[in-house]
Design brief:
The protein contains 5 helices and 3 strands; from the N terminus they run H-E-H-H-E-E-H-H. With about 120 residues, it is mainly α.
Length: about 120
Amino acid sequence: MSENLVLTEATYYILLALYSPQHGYGIMQQVEELSRGRVRLAAGTLYGALNSMTEKQWIAQLPVEDGSRKKNYQLTEHGMQVLMNEIERLRELVQNGDAVLGREAGAGSVKLIEHTENI
């Protein structure tokens, strides 16, 4: 089941947030926290993404408790595989970048600065 998907940053963080079941507002908060404020999801964006991920069977809505309006979601096995594939893809990107820049334990940042100064 090797899919060559490239996830958006928002999709990646939503899947990551759903490693533990959560409701929409909790997902929004955790995504913002995990991304250090870089990704802020509006409600419409989040619920559109949740619907899409549910259709793709990456996540599942849990049964709603009596008297509650909160919809809780959890990562499915397929969604976990999609997330793990993305983490591996991102790891490869970083490794390739480090290899090209000759980065060893932070040394690459100095080489990159020197290279960009010469441009």
